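Changelog entry: the Histamine N-methyltransferase record was regenerated in this release. Current contents:
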Amino acid sequence: MLDELHKKHPEVTVDNEVVEPSSQQLHNYKVLVSQKPELNYIKFIWNKMTASEFEEHWKLRKLTKKADFIHMIQMLYYVKDPGATISFFQSLLDKNGKLLIILVSGESGWGKLWRKYRNELCNTEISQCVTTGDIKSLLDSKGVSYQSFDLPSQMDITECFTEGDEKGELLLDFLTEVLDFSKMASLELKAGVLELLRHPDCSMESEGKVVFNNNLGVIVINKPT
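Regenerated structure tokens:
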């Protein structure tokens, strides 16, 4: 993304505030940056904290700095109040600033899975299981205008349907966000989840493979008027 911005605005220097609570992921990011000397037009500010800690920190220091571009990619699942988080970061936008949100689409297999089994699968202490459909409804209720786009994506989940398949078991853990799902879930829940994963609402079958609808949604919000 920074490369693309640089192509459009080659003369601009960038302050890049990185917000990431995981030490390992922050380290990985720093290693990538160190391997790209051509990013010398960017000043990286490393914030090892959650989005809510960053908000608290920002307000405490009474900072008035504004942002031209904020991206929240695959992260709104992990905040307690997605609406409040969006409102805070939207408030940081400068005059022509943009806030980019990417999550799984409400029409994806994830959306269908969460709608049917939210209570059984979603641990709200960890993840809110939100989709772009949920975020659009939230923004609509507040009268916030936005643009939306689709990012088609697919995932081969064929191994999930072979009992005891190691890769299939890991895929099931990933799809349900439950560790050792096959061992922990009741027989009824496991059967129901597998049936839904194979259903045309979630997946398509082609050439002996079960291909999961992993579509993502993109939402772009401007500075509030």
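Strands lie at 14-19, 42-47, 67-73, 93-104, 146-151, 154-156, 203-206, 209-213, 216-222.
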